[in-house]
Design goal:
Layout (H helix, E strand, L loop, with lengths): L1 E5 L2 E5 L3 H26 L3 H15 L7 H32 L5 H19 L2 H10 L13 H40 L7 H15 L2 H11 L3
């Protein structure tokens, strides 16, 4: 053991192996915590909601209206609303028992992932899940517990992307009809130099407001996870 002493400071070089192990665990913990926001976004409803809201803005044709900060904030709070039952189960079954020393860390992690896995299994497509099981040369699972999480998460993500794009397509159809009608009218009037988007934008906004579009979009998004 080598000690270096300075006024008010003492540095020790070398030490027990347990100290090094603790430092390594602390470093790994910080690494995981830095990735938690991205991980949580990928295994929750955030991806689908964000993409659908982006499709809505693009379908209307309003430039950066609503702003990105508003869309992301709305997607975040809608995700919290959709995932609230799952978070409550994680808090009750895993987090609180771990904080009161009723469960060790590894067991608490295993119990805490079960609600998230159940949520993902409800949304994932069997075809997407089978894809990663086949590519990974994994044994054919007989129950959901046999499916590893590292295969479930990417299958869930591409399922969410497909669902979001399907919803986005249905949202864009009525606005596309308005664009086609406006373009046909302008062509028949010989106003070919006038951009159709300039004329169709007020009509698309009127349609969206009259149909109470935000209410319908949010209702469809939340019920799509039921």
């Amino acid at each position: 053991m080598t000690s270096i002493t300075a006024p008010g400071v003492q540095v020790q070089l070398g030490g027990a192996g347990s100290d090094n192990q603790t430092a390594l665990q602390f470093f790994l913990l910080l690494t995981v915590l830095s990735l938690v926001p991205s991980i949580l976004m990928m295994v929750t409803s955030f991806v689908r909601i964000t993409i659908v809201l982006s499709f809505v803005r693009n379908a209307i044709g309003a430039q950066q209206m609503p702003p990105n900060q508003v869309l992301v904030g709305l997607a975040l709070f809608l995700s919290l609303f959709v995932m609230a039952p799952t978070w409550q189960r994680i808090n009750t079954d895993a987090l609180q028992p771990y904080l009161t020393n009723q469960l060790p860390a590894d067991k608490a992690f295993e119990v805490g992932t079960q609600p998230l896995r159940e949520f993902m299994f409800k949304q994932v497509r069997e075809r997407d899940l089978a894809l990663f099981i086949q590519i990974g040369n994994l044994p054919q699972p007989s129950t959901q517990a046999d499916v590893p999480t590292y295969a479930l998460v990417p299958a869930f993500m591409i399922s969410e992307l497909k669902t979001a794009f399907q919803m986005g397509f249905l949202i864009m159809v009525p606005f596309l009809v308005i664009d086609i009608v406006v373009s046909s009218v302008l062509m028949s009037m010989g106003m070919m130099m006038l951009p159709p988007a300039t004329i169709s934008l007020p009509f698309k906004l009127l349609l969206f407001v009259m149909a109470d579009g935000w209410h319908l979009i949010v209702h469809s998004l939340i019920t799509s996870f039921s």
